[in-house]
Amino acid sequence: MGRSPWCSCGSPVPWSFVVQSKHNSQHLLDPYAFTHVLHGVLFCAGTWLALGRWLGPRARLLVALSLEGGWELLENSSWVIERYRAETISLDYYGDSVINSLADVGACALGFYLARRLPLWGSLVLFCAFELLLLLWIKDSLTLNVIMLVYPLEAIRSWQSGG
């Protein structure tokens, strides 16, 4: 897919917390790592509901990580990158670096692990807390990201861009 292994800037800093920059999605961690933790929470619930009678936790984790890996491939496709750039505030998004994609899969595994260990209400609190944190911090979240990818709303785009 032609992705660079690391940020082309060469900076050894493992994170980038400035969303509106060329560094976003190029280092090990960025604010969107939290959305990948939430993927893990959702995949844990979804695989338990759909496959819990037939598969144990390890097999469901493999299903979740396969789904996350599939998402990483789709997210880094030309079509999705252009969709993000055209319909969201991610004007400087050119896809993830290899290390960022791998970290996103790791974040998904962490979310799955947390959801397995927490009671249902704990997973719901975690989900809502991460969504709220991201809304306050970067004016984006997993929910807004999905909305803007599937059915972009000008009101959200305007709010995110400070208008």
Structural class: mainly alpha
Total of domains? 1
Rg for CA atoms: 16 Å
User: Any idea what the shape is?
Assistant: globular
- Strand percentage: under 5%
Give unreliable regions as ranges.
none
- Name the helicity range: 55-70%
Tell me the series of helices and strands, N- to C-terminal. HHHHHHH
**Largest sheet report:** none
Number of helical elements:
7
Distance from first to last alpha carbon: 35 Å
Q: Mean of residue pLDDT? A: 93
Number of strands: 0
What does this structure look like?
- The protein is an all-alpha fold.
- It has one domain.
- Helices cover 63% and strands 0% of the residues.
- It has seven helices and no strands.
- The chain has helices spanning 33-51, 57-75, 78-87, 98-117, 120-138, 142-150, 154-160.
- Helix 1 packs across helix 4.
- The radius of gyration is 16 Å and the shape is globular.
- It starts with 32 loop residues before the first helix and ends with a helix.
- The mean pLDDT is 93.
Brief sketch in words of this structure:
The protein has 163 residues and is mostly helical. 63% of the residues lie in helices and 0% in strands. It has one domain.
Key structural traits:
single chain; 163 residues; mainly alpha; 7 helices; 63% helix; globular
Show the helix and strand layout.
Elements: H1 33-51, H2 57-75, H3 78-87, H4 98-117, H5 120-138, H6 142-150, H7 154-160
Helix pairs in contact: 1-2, 1-4, 1-5, 2-4
